[in-house]
What does this fold into?
Amino acid sequence: MNKKRKKSLKASVIYILVLLALSLAAYGYKSLETFFQESMASFELDDIVIEGHNILSRQEVLSLCGLNGKKKLLKISPNSVVTKLLKSPYIKTASAVRSLPATLHIEIVERKAVAFIFGKGLNLIDTEGILLPVPKSNRSWNLPFIMHSRHAIGQLGKQSVLTEVQKAVQVLSYINILKSSLGDLIAEISIINNSDIRLQLIKGGSIVRIKYDNYQENLFLLSEYIQVYQNWNELAAIEYIDMRFKNQFIVKEKKS
It folds into this structure.
């Protein structure tokens, strides 16, 4: 009987010791977790690395994020930073990542402007037909103008509502893909009756007429032709180039 009591007492003591050990371990874990959380929360944001900004300055990106002044790194929400950045009409995509002990990495992809366009004042338009305000910076833009027949072209930050403008954007985007000197020679582009493309060159005001339905092939041929006539004086002597007719390449020189 005494042996049974001793065994029962021993088991109870062991059980109590195990519970005590587990409680101490849980307390220690909680204390350690609290310590690490408090330590990490105290990390001051020391550096912000921004990549991909060209239209926007570094200071403009920081202002958009609300990151002017000292901040605790772990109190900055990357999702919140991205949400604020995407409110800018110039930013197409963005990402933000915290890097311990004290760095925030921000990467943005800006919209690429392909032309100027008049709406309610002078605007830019990107490769997706999104209307953008002209930045206040002193940056120079070597871009053509898209001419159109209406006053209402759409809202800033949204796609233009005009079909003729969207077609002009498609044409200019293709010209940029060609990576020829043709893109630098275009002063104006307009779509006539939604079927014909009219390009005006910057040297001498030469006019190029192309059918929209076959613009890619004709623009490729035109870029090859321009390569031959790199001499500015020779290009300026041309009144117009008409490529609207099948298997014909009509070049009319100005009267001397």
Q: What stands out?
A: The radius of gyration is 33 Å. Residues 47-110 form a domain with the Ubiquitin-like (UB roll) fold (CATH 3.10.20.310).
